[in-house]
Amino acid sequence: MSETPLARAIAAAGSASELARKIGVTAQAIYQWRQVPAERCLAVSQTTGIALHELRPDIYPDPTVALPPNPDRVPLERAGIDPRVADKVA
Predict the structure, then answer these.
(1) Residue 62 confidence class, pLDDT cut points 50, 70, 90
(2) Nearest to residue 9, comparing CAs of 61, 1, 58, 17?
(3) In whole angstroms, what is the distance from residue 25 CA to residue 63 CA?
(4) What is the count of structural domains for the chain?
(5) Residue 40: domain span
(6) What is the DSSP letter of 3?
(7) Which of 54, 62, 64, 65 is nearest to 2 (CA)?
């Protein structure tokens, strides 16, 4: 079985106690977690370098996965915008 995101975060910090100290909670709190709580994801990610989508894929989408096409999107040409300068249009 693969290591859980929480276990990876603890290992990256060095220990549960060290992770707790770095993010401002008690080690007992860390030991009670089944997964990183949503309100602690940013602190854990910043402390460990583990991406948010790896810590909690249920609430943070993987930015490398393409989003489905938006059927309401109007092509730049139809909107009267030259695609060569689209990034310069506010």
Answers:
(1) confident
(2) 17
(3) 29
(4) 1
(5) 5-55
(6) P
(7) 54
Note the pTM of the prediction, 2 decimals. Answer: 0.69
* Residue 89: inside a domain: no
- List the structure tokens of 51: 């991406």
Which one is predicted more confidently, 12 or 84?
12
pLDDT given at position 89: 52
Q: What is the three-state SS of 21-89?
A: HHHCCCHHHHHHCCCCCHHHHHHHHHHHCCCHHHHCCCCCCCCCCCCCCCCCCCCCCCCCCCHHHHHHC
Q: What CATH number is associated with residue 24?
A: 1.10.260.40
Q: How far apart are the first and last CA of the chain?
A: 49
**Chain length of the chain:** 90
Q: Is 85 inside any structural domain?
A: no
Amino acid at 17: S
Cα 88 to chain centroid, rounded: 29
